[in-house]
Structures are given as C-alpha cells and as structure tokens.
Design goal:
This protein is about 85% helix and about 0% strand. By secondary structure, the chain is mainly alpha-helical.
C-alpha cells in the first residue's frame, strides 16, 4: 500500500504545481483587466471633466478681472458724492460677482479657491481702508486714492490670476 501512495503523490505534485500556476496567471490577468478598465473609465471621465474645469477657470478669471479695482471703478461710477454709498455699491457688486461664481469651486483645487477668496477679501479691504481715510471725503476722491494705491502696490487679484495660470499649466 505504501508503494501505491508514492507514485500517486509523485503524479499529483506536477498537477498541483500546474493548478497553482494557472491560478496565479488567472489572478494576474483579472487584476490587469481591472486596472485597464479603471484606466479607460478614468480617461473617459477626464474627457468629460476637462472642458468643465477649463470653463470654471475661465469664469474665475473673468470674476477676478471684473473685481480688479481699476476695472471695477471704471464700470461702477458713483451715483453721488457720498463715499459710503459708493463703498457699499462696490462691495455689493463684488459680493454679487462672487456669489454668481460659487459653484465653480467644485472644479478647482481648494488652494486655488482659497486664493480667489483671499483676493476678493483683499479687494474689499482695500476699498474699506480707503473709505476710512480722513482725507477721502467724496466718492471721486475715493476712486482717485484707490487707483493710486493700485498703481503703487498692485491689485489683490494679480496673485490669484498668477495662481490660476500656474494651475492650468499643470493640467496640460
């Protein structure tokens, strides 16, 4: 009986090796297929999401251009001479522009969105600081001081525009 078991075991060893090898290659094949399917799905999603991302960047660049103090002051002329009314008008316009573009944040990085928010807040702060200056007593004087500061220090939206351009260059 011992003699019959040894040939049986000897004949089973190659069969088990072949079975284990077949299982290994089958698992390797299924893993590669899964990776290939994921890659194709990812590639298809990128085809669909890239235009949306680019459109979001375009809209946010437009937002930054619209709140650029020089352009904002040109577009929004004061209704009267009261600097507080003009300040409210400018800030309200910036906030409306921002609210109009809130949904774009889902297509861009958090860092980019935070940079855009910081730019918006810095622009509002610039307007408020100028309004608080004692020598600024009219809306026209306010415009003049804001434009002077813009020339001397640059616009808050410049940094955000540079950040967007850098982030878009990383996409391509």
């Amino acid at each position: 009986m011992k003699i019959e078991i040894i040939p049986l075991v000897i004949s089973l060893v190659p069969a088990m090796l072949i079975t284990m090898l077949a299982i290994y290659f089958f698992k390797l094949h299924t893993t590669n297929e899964e990776k290939r399917r994921r890659y194709l799905l990812h590639k298809e999603n990128q085809k669909q999401s890239l235009p949306l991302k680019l459109q979001a960047y375009e809209r946010l660049v437009l937002f930054l251009e619209r709140i650029y103090p020089g352009k904002l002051l040109t577009r929004m002329t004061p209704n009267g001479n009261d600097k507080k009314d003009y300040e409210s008008l400018l800030i309200q316009t910036i906030e409306q522009e921002f609210e109009h573009n809130l949904t774009q944040q889902i297509y861009i990085s958090d860092e980019c969105w935070n940079t855009i928010k910081a730019s918006k807040n810095a622009t509002i702060t610039l307007i408020r600081k100028v309004t608080l200056q004692k020598e600024v007593d009219t809306a026209d004087k306010m415009r003049e001081v804001i434009l002077t500061e813009l020339i001397e220090k640059g616009a808050p939206s410049d940094a955000a525009l540079a950040f967007i351009k850098e982030e878009i260059s990383d996409v391509f």
